[in-house]
Request: fold
Amino acid sequence: MAQSALVNRHMPVVWRVAFRMLRDRQEAEDVTQETFLRAWKMLPDWEDRAKFSTWACTVAINLCRDRLKKKKPVLMDELPEQADLALRPEQALTQKQASARIKALVDALPERQKEALTLCAFEGMGNIEAAETLGVSVEALESLLARARRKLRLELAGDSGTGMR
Amino acid sequence: MMMTDDRLHALIAAYGADPAFWPEDERAAAEAHLAADAGRFAAALEEARALDLAFAEADIPDAPSGLAARILAEAPQAARPGASWAGRLGDILFPNGLRWPAGATAAALVMGLTAGVFTAPATADDGYQTASEDLVYGALGYGGFDAYVEEVSG
Reply:
């Protein structure tokens, strides 16, 4: 069935994007469902629309933004840097801890940088499609990505400087 | 676009060390430029690779089980091809609707034909798609159901 093919192919991506943005399973599920609900309504007029993946990620990201607006924004610049996020020096950096650390750092990125990184680095979306999804130019996308990566590198280097690795 | 040191550094800074993530239209030129003098980019690549590896650690849970089913439960149902056949046949034979008793025999004929359609052996025509389903496959980037079948069947 066509709808099954559509859901099987795109639902996991929409779910991951929503989960990375919201860090809440229930909210990510709500956003994923809402995205496809809108897709079903749009289908009869689909002909002139973008690729489904671009459209779905755009809708999902916009829904996530709406939800995030209702929460207090927490940006990296506002965080007490090492105190909350860093592991204690005596702890070994296990794989699980490394995963938790990078997730915390990505979560703390400014929203647009996090969106760009989610689409390109985590979902492997091409630069043109990712730029279209976020409604920015490719140059702007690259700037977001480079700033995000630079910030993360500095944070991880800070870990090394405090004996983390 | 002409590949330069600056551009390759920008690609590594934005997309990481793995060429698979670099823009498709610049990838070949960037890889050739890198191969020409890899040493100039070694430090940038090493930094980027460390971050790429960290990203690989940042796993996330799979989508909740049953989510696909819940989404599909909301999907519009495609019209049944058999039902539309019967409807169309009825419209042809009885453009003004059925009238008893003159319509009784003809109604039996319609029922027989309809039953025949439903009980006929499966054929390639079972792949019939509604227009809306074709749109979905188009949205998937297949350009329609036929292209989808072609790719899936290899």
Notes: Residues 5-57 of chain B form one domain. Residues 79-100, 119-128 of chain B have pLDDT under 50 and may be disordered. Chain B has two domains: 5-57, 81-152.
